[in-house]
Structure formats: structure tokens, C-alpha cells
Amino acid sequence: MAFGQDSSNNSFVGKWEVVESFSKGPDQAVSDEYGLSQIFLGGSIDFNSNGNFKIDLKSQEEFAIDLIEMTMGTKWRYNKDLDWIMVGTEEDDYTIIGFQHFIKDKKSYLKIPESGIVLQVKKIK
User: What is the pLDDT of residue 11?
Assistant: First the structure.
């Protein structure tokens, strides 16, 4: 993976607080997706060890509310071929949202590959 260590050892399992959000990567904080990336700030993303997934967002933006509703009761699975953490259900083939976990300069990040959004995260549980 271009960014750093891969996720094959499940280093992403746990609850993460979003401490910073970027669009197009941590070196470019301005883009069309910047506003969308901000809905994740202060929220949490939980990849439970039993496979359950939960996202809590503080934003009241429509996309944030929709994302919380769409991911309610979902699971995650790791796709080794893509190096993606896929979120969803068996019925939708885990395609609601995906994340790539990487570490750069001793900081953890979750990238949303379908967009240019990158979240700097801190493990809280």
C-alpha cells in the first residue's frame, strides 16, 4: 500500500475518533469534497472485533444522517485483495461504504476510497 502499513493484521479493529478530516489527503485540505469531509469531525467509527460496525457522527447534515441510517445494523469485513474494510450486509455484498486504514508519520488514517476523503483517527477503544 502506498501510504504505509497494510491492514491485514486487523490493526484497524476498535473504536476510532475522527480528529481531523481532509479531502484528497492530509497535504491538501481544500477541494470540492472538503465540506463533505467535515461531517466526520468529532465522530467515531467502530470496527468491533465481532464484525459489527457502527458510526456516530455529530453533524446534522443530511449526508451524515443518511450514512448513520444506512450503516445501522451492518457488519464489516476485510477485503484482502483491495486492502479495504468493506461495510454492509451479505445482501448488499458489503458495499455501503469502504475504508482503507493506513499509518503515516505515526498517525492513523482511514481513507474512503470512493471519494477523496481521508480521516485522521485516534483509537479510543
Answer: 82
- Report phi then psi at 108, rounded to 5: -95, 145
Per-residue pLDDT of the chain (125 residues; tens, 9 = 90+): 333 334 445 788 999 999 999 886 444 445 557 778 889 999 999 999 999 999 999 999 898 999 999 999 999 999 888 889 999 999 999 999 999 999 999 999 999 988 889 999 999 98
| In contact, 114 and 98? CB cutoff 8 Å | yes
| Burial call 68-97: b when 16+ CB within 10 Å, e when fewer | eeebeebbbebeeeebbbbbbeeeeebebb
Handedness of CA 72, 38, 123, 10 (dihedral sign): positive
State the CB neighbour count (10 A cutoff) for residue 108.
19
> Residue 58: which of 21, 104, 88 has the closest Cα?
21
Q: Are the beta carbons of 43 and 57 closer than 8 angstroms?
A: yes
Cα-trace Rg, the chain = 13
